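Q: How would the C-alpha cells look for this protein?
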Amino acid sequence: MKEIITILITLLISLFANGQSIDDPFSQKKMKQDFEIFKQISKEANSGLYKYRTEQQIDSIYNWGNLQTEKSLTYRDFYNLISTISNFEGSLHNDVSLPKKFAENLKNETKGYFPYPIKWIDNKWLINISDKLIPLGSEIIEINDTKIEEIIPELYKYYSTDGNNITGKRIGIMTSFSKYYRLHFGLTDSFKVVFLNPTTKQLETKNIDSVPYKAYYENFNKIHSMPLDIFYFADLKENQKYNYKKLDSLTGILTIHTFAMGNETTTEHKKYQKFLDSIFTEIKTKEIKNLIVDVRNNGGGTDPNDLITYSYLTNRNFQENLEAWITFKKIPLLRYIDNKSPRLVRPLFLASYNKEFREIFPKEKNGKFYQDENSDDHKIRTPNPNAYNGNVYLLTSPRIASAGSLFAAMLAGNENTTTIGEETMGGYYGHNGHSSLNYKLPNSKIIITFSVVNLEQDVPKKENQKYDRGIIPDYEVTQTFDDFITNTDTQLNFTLDLIRKE
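A: Here is the predicted structure in C-alpha cell form.
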C-alpha cells in the first residue's frame, strides 16, 4: 500500500512540476463537446465564416472534423483539428491559442525541437543561420525522410492569412518553424536532414540533435537575415517606426514600418501627422518626381494613421470602407467568452460591449447588422492640400496585414502607383477586422480568437487583383540567393533600376 501511495505522490509531483503536455491523452467525449461549441460559436459570431468559403465547404470541413474527433487521442490532436478549421476559414485575424499551462510547458521543454531557423528564398527553404554542421544557405530537401514540400503545407494551419494567401504563411514558418514542426509531428529526439550544400552543390545528409524550445528562439534572434528583417521582428521604438529620405534630386523614399502610433487623442499620432505634413511639404517644394513608399514590414496598427497617410497620396475622395457588418445584435454564447474581468463586474462589462456594438452597427438587413452613414468608417475623406501626384512605387511583402494591407490596397488602386514586391498577407478587396472576440472552449480551455467585422475596402476593381488573395504586385520581385547571402535589398534595387529606365 505504501508503495502505491509513493508512486501516486511521485506522479502528482511530476505533473505539477512539468505542467501539462499537449501530448497527453484527451477524452473523445470532451473533444466532441468542445467541437460542437466551437462550431456554434463560429456560426453565430464569426461574420467571416463564409467570406471565402461556401456554406457547403464549411459544412464539409465540419463533417470532416466530426470524423477526426472519433480518431483523435491526444490534446495535441484536438488542438491541430481546431487550428486546421480556423485556418480554413481564411482570416489573418483568426488565432487558436493554447491555455497558459500548456503554453508554459512547451516553453520549458528541454529537447525535441529543430535547431535551425529557415527562410523562403528563390522558391526554396534555406538555412538562415551560420552553423558548422549545415552551412548557411543550404537548401533543405528532407527532414526525417519526409520531403520539405510535404512538411511545409502541414504547418500552414498555425498561421492564418486572408483568403487563400500562401505567401504570408511563410512569414509564420520563418519565425516559428521549429515550434510548428513540434506541434504537428510531436517531440523529436534527432533529425536526419538531407540538404544541398550551396558551396559544393552536392547533396549531403547530417544527423543533428534536437534542442530545447528556448534554444530555437535564441537561434532565431541570430538569423543571418536580421539586418533586413529586424524592423518586422523588433519591438520598434517611436523613432524607428517611420522615416523619409531623399535619394537624389528626383526621388525620395517614405518608409512606414507600422501604423501602431495611437489614435487621434495620442501624442504619438499627432507627431506622426506633423511628420507627414512636413515631408510632403518638402516633397512638393523640391518637386520630387518619384516617391517610393515602403510598407513591407507593416503588419497593421491603429486608425486613422493608415487613412491620413493615404490622404497625402491620392487625388480622390475616399472612405475607410464601403461596407461593414457583423452577424449578431448581442454577443452570442456569452458564457464562453474569455473575459479577464472579475466575475461580479463581468455582466456590466459585457452589457457595455453589447451597447457599443448596437451603436456602431444599428442597421439590420437580412440578419446582418451594418454600420450606417454616421459611422466614421464611412466618412468621406478628402486629399490633403499637399497630396503627392507624381510617380508612386509601392513596395510590398507577405508581412503586410490589417491596417497595413488596407493602406497598401488603396494605394495600389491608384493609377499613378506601380506595385513591386510580393503578394501581401492581407486582402485587396476586404478582410475581417476591427473588434475581436476571444472564446474559451470549456473542456480543453483552448482560446479561439477572430475579428467580427466583415469589411469591404474602398478600392477600385483591377484585373490582376483576386478576391481571395492578398495584394498582387505589378512586378513580382523576390530576393535572390546571392542577395540573401549579402543581405542586399533586391526589391529596392529593382525599383531604383526601374525608375532610371523610365
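Residues 176 and 217 are 8 Å apart (CA to CA).

The mean pLDDT is 93.

Upvote if useful.
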